[in-house]
Amino acid sequence: MAEVLRPQMMGARVSRLEDPRLLSGQARFLDDIQVPGMLEVAFVRSPHAAAKILSVDVEAARHLPGVYAVMTHQECPVMLWNKESYKVGQPALADGEVAFVGQPVVAVIAENRYIAEDAAELIRVEYQAITPVLDMRDAIQEKPRRVHEHAENVFFKKSRQTPGFDEAFAAASHHLTASFRTNRQTAVTMEPRGTAAMLDAASGRLTVYASTQSPHRMREDICNLLDIPEHLVRIIVPEVGGGFGMKAACYPEDVVVAQAALRYRKPVKWISDRLESLESDVHARDDIHDVEVAFDDDGKIIAIKDHLMADGGAYPAYPWSGAEGETGLAARVLTGPYDIPYLATDIDCTYSNKTPLGSYRGVWGPIASFIQEGLVDRVARHLNLDPADVRRRNMIRKEQFPYRNAARMIYDEGSYLESMEEALKLIGYEDFRKRQAVLRQQGRYVGVGISVFVEPTAMASSEAGEVGYESCTIRIEPSGRVTAAFGLGPSGQGHETTMAQLLADQLGVPLADIVVLHGDTDSAPYGGGTGGSRSGPIGGGAALVAGRQMRERLIKYAAHLLEAGEDDIELGDGKAWVAGVPDRSLTIRTIAQTAYMDVSKIPEGLPIGLEITGRYLPKRPVTFSNGTHIAEVEVDVHTGVVKVTRYAVANDCGRVINPTIVEGQIHGGVAQGIGAAVLEALRYDEDGQLVTTSLLDYLLPESTDVPRIDVHHIETPSEGEGGIKGMAEGSLIAAPAAVACAISDALAPFGGMVDTLPVTPDMVLKMVQDR
Amino acid sequence: MADERVEVVLQVNGREHRLEVSPRWTLSDVLRHQLGLIGTHVGCEQGVCGACTVLLDGEPVRSCLMFAVQAQGQHITTVEGITPENGLSPLQEAFRAHHALQCGYCTPGMLLTAQALLDRDPNPSEETIREALTGNLCRCTGYQFIVDAVLAARGQGRGA
Amino acid sequence: MKPAAFKYFRASTTEEALQHLEAHPGSKVLAGGQSLVPLMNFRLSRPEVLVDINGVDELNRLSVEGGEVRIGALVRHQQLAESVDVARAVPVLSTAAQHIGHWAIRNRGTIGGSVAHADPASELPAALVALNGSVVLRSAAGERRLPADEFFQGFFNTALQDGDLIVELRIPVSKSRFGFSEVVRRPGDFALVGAYIERAGSSGAVTWFGLSGRPERLPVDAWPQGESDRRALLERLVGALPVDESEDYKRAMAVNVAERAYHQAEGEK
Predict the structure, then answer these.
(1) Are A732 and A674 in contact (CB under 8 A)?
(2) What CATH number did the domain enclosing A334 receive?
(3) What is the pairing mode between strands A206-210 and A233-236?
(4) Which of A519, A574, B83, C214 is within CB 3.0–4.6 Å of A24 for a Cys-Cys bond?
(5) Tens-place pLDDT, residues A750-768
């Protein structure tokens, strides 16, 4: 069979199919779902970090004209509680106590949001404030108290050590210690969260519109929490204005909205405003690492010891805590791309009276890279070696793949050293060092930071859930046009284009003849959704598997109808033909007509119609992408302001489906990484009040904060379908470390090194003054 | 206080609309919910993110920081108003060609700011473009491809 | 984040606006709305009556006459930033206006609104103080003129009384040279700290903003020529200001931006 394809679409810079509707204002996001009689929800949220609820008086609100209903825990007695993993769950609406500022207490359902907010103001909740638990180190010691009386503060604890660690650590000739702190950040999708629910007039089932990354997981969560069988719930995901892991969880508000639609038999909608978003979207990156590193005279790192701590907030996000995700995986990939034989890690995740920690793009990665690269730079500075050289000495070499790291993770083949050398070339490293020396003479402080990253992708489990496979249903319609459905939940990644590219090559049809559906559990085959950089490799793998099966079927048809051998059939441009005899051809449309309308001509053994569902479960539990980011910064030592001036990336995510889309993902992750490094922090005051409640306080990078980013692609194929690896998180995994290292480099004359993110102007001034 | 209604006449994308609104309804809400112009997106209601940007007499403004009653007699342009009847405008085409959008939520506001810039300065430098776009936040693209798209759309006018 | 209900009146003359303000105690003036409406959306501000002055053309005048720049309360930041007359008469005011917010904010935000809001980290109130400007207020009782230094009283606090309407700002055209510099995390943000420097021959003044509750203008009898002496003087001056302990780091910044503004003033005119 002419199985060797000449892929034309895979690897092509195709403009996105989803763009026209988005560019013309026609795309339908969650708040654009509008049906007659729809009611809107506003939540009364806790103003206290910790308090007992003494009474709730909703009477005045209930009687306000335009108010339809008011719900408390009594009307929605649901707990978001993953009992298999945690001793604590969060009630959808507070039940007798509140544990963080912004926790939903009462839901008001009214004609519109304006009236709902009027009514929310009329609700009187009497609280008795309790001392909040706010400091991570204290909380781990159960101080000042337990967050939840019946559960220890530390809810996830794990220790792991490479055999022989103590001896190796003690025998090393040099040791350094450092404590690293990452402050709370959050995804801030430009479209806030939102949910709408209604009973479907045609079927009586519950339809939930959800701005989520994982339609089937959301269905499962809603069904489990509200005790409804799955076939009676339909999830529809409209256009999603950004997810970044934050929209992977099921939230209390989702449950309340669904419950309201069921209880009152009315269409109900809730759209988060930005205040709610900053208070109640899952937070991330609230971690402390106390680290010791042992190394020899040449800068070869021998052992790392790390006490990882994370503040998980008041409750585990449902169904799992981001604190566990951030520390658990960080502990396994802490050695990054370096061949460091010994590792000892102790993890403590604690509750506190803050917003729950969940997933945000990169989850563990931005933290672990910050530590791993920070350590390498400390070693380099201690030994007065070039940071690039120390990286070269420690890097896992090509011949070591598949490589088993000190935490027993298996890395498949990558291009670690190659990526660094490419990135060094892109940034002009040698020239930079000369320029840096000259500028220092002039009192200007520039620096470069190198961040070599590994990115575990396509994992058997991720924030998108425990579904390790993905599915694709291909239906070639009687017209010969293709409808393909996936269980993915894209939020800007361009799956409608990339999946169509993969299918176009397999089916030999033009891109314009393919429509990719996603996000509707009625049409999509069961799948894990989007998260953990899995959609490209696993979703794409499913497209390839299903596409290949359909291709085989098309070839059988063509061989039969053209009276030729299957090995001689070629597909392309919407046609099938006999190799070398282009005149002996027929269109895919003709095949489809036969399959549906002229069924007596169907080749023996084939079913009626052209519909196939293919599933793909990667053989490896994970495939590692890799690359190197190098940031150049200028630090204004008079104001403490850091400007990222140049940026280079060498990226290896295996076979690339669409380089332009990959570059877009990288640019976006770098921008978020710059935010993480110098701008973004959620701050609480001493009473546990969140003080960063607007986008004037929580600073996102603007167009002038992000430099041009030079991207070089390297392709080391995975062993999985299509050689594809995931790539959406690598850029945010690498970028904060690159910027942090660059700041340390710029400020080297003052002696200090960055150990806290984000680096704020006052911190820079302190580093300069502490000289 | 009860929600009184007042009449307002809005000129939106060249059409006149006579509406009953509550004075407290923001222009963004009225465009979206009363007129069905859902291309105007609401991202913060704090005047920071720029997703709700519309043109008021040709100049970009935040529609979340204006009450609809205030727009009486002024000309409002939304993303629907810069979209040709068929296809896309040169700027929109450039956005597509340069992959200047991912989730697309900030895109209408971005387009309107960029269009207003090109209307007043047909040949802006990269620096001018970046400065003009500082008031429009994008969380997906890192801005580079947006800037590239605006650079590419220079000198092409608004199209059909 | 939706505002509470209010009654809305649209004024087309100053008189009409004053009548509404007089008739409805506790009413608020709605001009550009770039500070007021976010507060209303948060329901941190909930006026029962809004008097919209956007249609009052007489408040929209910008002129340089009689040795003064006269800026109507309704003049938008962008108008100020783009005015050739202002750039010629008081260049530092043009420079500062370009640093206010973002384009869309400048298109809508008004001079009067900025002054009434009195954000201590805002460029314009500080400019008014630094440039010895004054605020012209009108109420049913008549018109009065307050020096900027008296008008700004503290954190978001001014001499504005119920029923007052800011009608105009007046800034004398001075022979002094001025410089401006500020520290922002991102372009368009409110300043962490900023400074205006005045050089009138060998004397002058420094005006800092973002440090305490209001812009602080401190006269300087004689500017030291050497940088280290000048820094020592600035350090002494900033040391006397009531800066919140948690923001002590701003003192070092303040000295540095003042030094930058000093050099800017050297280059001006």
Answers:
(1) no
(2) 3.30.365.10
(3) parallel
(4) B83
(5) 999 999 999 999 999 999 9
Q: Which residue has the tokens 């403590």?
A: A348
Residues of C with CB under 8 A from a CB of B: 1-8, 10, 30, 33-34, 37-38, 41-42, 48, 50, 52, 54, 78, 101-105, 107-108, 186-188
Residues of B in contact with A704 (CB under 8 A): 130-131, 134
Give the nearest chain B residue to A33 (CA atoms).
B38
Q: Around Cβ A721, how many Cβ atoms within 10 Å?
A: 21
Q: Which of A23, A190, A671 sits opposite B96 (nearest CB)?
A: A23
Q: Which domains does chain B have, with CATH numbers?
A: 6-81 (3.10.20.30), 90-152 (1.10.150.120)
Preceding amide of A319 cis, omega within 30: yes
Q: Cβ contacts (< 8 Å) between A665 and chain B: which residues?
A: 102
Q: What is the pLDDT of residue A465?
A: 66
Q: What residues in C contact A273, CB-CB < 8 Å?
A: 1
CB pairs under 8 A between A and B: 176
Higher pLDDT, C268 or A92: A92
pLDDT in tens, B23-46: 999 999 999 999 999 999 999 999
Cα separation of A355 and A321, whole Å?
A: 11
pLDDT digits (tens, 9 = 90+) for A142-191: 999 999 999 999 999 999 999 999 999 999 999 999 999 999 999 999 99
Nearest-CB residue to A664 (from B102, B107, B133)? B102
- Cβ-Cβ pairs closer than 8 A, A with C, add up to 59
Residue at a domain's end among A616, A639, A659: A616
Answer whether C188 sits within 8 Å of B2, measured CB to CB. Answer: no
Q: What is the pLDDT of residue A466?
A: 74
Enter the DSSP assignment of A690: B
Mean pLDDT of A29-51: 97
Chain B residues within an 8 Å CB radius of A519: none
Residue A469 contacts residue A542 (beta carbons within 8 Å): yes
The type of residue at A550 is: M
- pLDDT tens, position by position, C86-112: 999 999 999 999 999 999 999 999 999
pLDDT at A25: 97
Q: Which amino acid is at A315?
A: Y
The CATH superfamily assigned to C177-267 is CO dehydrogenase flavoprotein, C-terminal domain (3.30.390.50)
Is residue A476 predicted with pLDDT exceeding 70?
A: yes
Per domain, the residue ranges of chain C are 7-52, 59-172, 177-267
d(CA C235, nearest CA chain B) in Å = 33
Q: Residue A98 sits in which domain range?
A: 33-130+191-280
Nearest CB to C186; choose among A118, A639, A702: A702
pLDDT at A704 over 90: yes
List the structure tokens of C22: 């007089």
